[in-house]
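Fold this sequence, please.
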Amino acid sequence: MVNYKMAVVEESELRIARIHDDCNRKIQDLIEHHKIQKQKQKEMLLKEMAKQQQQKQEEEKQQQKITNIDSAVVENEELRKEIENWKEKYSDLKNKMEAAERPTNQQVEVR
């Protein structure tokens, strides 16, 4: 009878040890799964951050292009005004030169 009780106790202890090992394996599997999920989330977050950074850089490039275009338009307008000013000066000078070349009434009478 003692041998039977000892066998039952040993069998129970073996079952408990197997259950304990299964639980430890499941815990390790859960820990590994959690680590993998955490790493995946970290990678996704890094990708999202990189994507946002790239979008920000693209927006900055577009803004710089707009600023450059605006500057060019202003410079173009200034040059256009300067050209008009020189045209007026040239026209005035040309008119003065033509007037100087025409004989005046006094010069006509002298002849």
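The helical segments are 2-101, 105-110. Residues 14 and 20 are 10 Å apart (CA to CA).
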